[in-house]
Structure prediction request, 445 residues.
Amino acid sequence: MNKIDALIIGAGPTGLFTAHQLRLIGLNCEIVDNLDKIGGQCIELYPDKPIYDIPAVPECTGEELTNNLLNQLKPFNIKFHLSERVDEVKKDKDNWIVKTSNGKSFLTPNVIIAGGVGSFEPRKFPVKDCEKFENKSVLYSIKDKSIFEGKTVTIFGGGDSALDWAVELSKNSKVNLVHRRDEFRAAQATVDQVHKLSKAGKINLLTKYQMTGINGKEKLENIEIKHDNKETKNVKTDYVLGFFGLIMQLGPIADWGLNINKKTIEVDTEKFETNQKGIYAVGDICTYPGKLKLILSGFHEGALAARACFKLARPNEKYRFEFTTSSKAIKDRLGVKGD
Amino acid sequence: MSKITYLTHDNQTFTVDVQNGLTVMEGAVQNDIPGIDADCGGGMACATCHVYVKEDWLDKLPKKEDGEEDMLDMAFEPKTNSRLSCQLIVSDELDGLIIKIPSKQA
Prediction:
């Protein structure tokens, strides 16, 4: 079991800056995130969209903001645990035992939830019976593409994932690509390639269709799709792939005994502590009177939660406030030269 | 103020006064109307404020911006009358608007 001063859940901007604040005051920490990359909503939802309200940064994209925060964290060599979801948080005397979906566990007096709107999970097909085939023949991500060789694969979606896989799998499989409208939002080059492959008969393009049914006993046999003009079609297929992006779910956080109000966690505004001692919530996931869902608010909340962590991580020491401009201790931690 | 009517999938009706300039999404959230999640807070980045607009209102609404149709690709059961309620700004022209909230946002 990893013994650490604080565990941060969520590698979005708030989680990253909170890590910075913890390390600056001499506490160690690690970060867990369910996504396979660092940056949270900034990377998953709007990597290319400009943000205009980060103090002293007139304009930057979600990706640039993430990269800058990572640069700021460089001196500290933070350990990230990506593609892992925190499933369990349990009290153990003065500590919390935290377990992840990959079986890692941490012992820590401080857990900081910087989880945005929860963990990202793939959006699923609305058709109820799809659950029956999920992870067998209805998939939302691809781990091993060799399983599709020589099979019929029906891909749903109009973004990069759907089109990239349609192109890739058309080499060794029979591919149907189904989308709810004629336009695709994927990169133009990929869209062109899909149209070319469609003309060559390598991809069976079915637009303005959506899934309305799925059939099969043990094994998936066929799906029913419906055109905007109400016409329906039966499509024989071995696999169905859905690429509708990701959705945020509060997930297991709801079961940790915290006061939850409309998918957000209630905290005080001194420590950003929840109703459980040593569990804090910062950023979009916390709520208190006057809460603004801005990135800059998350930075402030993280800075204060980090100070609160000090008390529990170093019960016999007194926290002393210091400025980065003058503190020798801080400069040593940053690895920069003093005056 | 304009009157906006929200119909939920389980046949509840909420008619509320929404201040002009707010979005139909904000009108729902501020009045605790269930079924509109608005996870991203109006950034047109999540498709969890998806609504169906009553057919006779479709032409009276502001046209979709580029990103809206892309986001609707990800909505739960999108239809031809689907819109993102965060993109519908309430004005006198929308007084009396009726929208239907899908059974789920995801």
Observations:
- Residues 124-244 of chain A form a domain with the FAD/NAD(P)-binding domain fold (CATH 3.50.50.60).
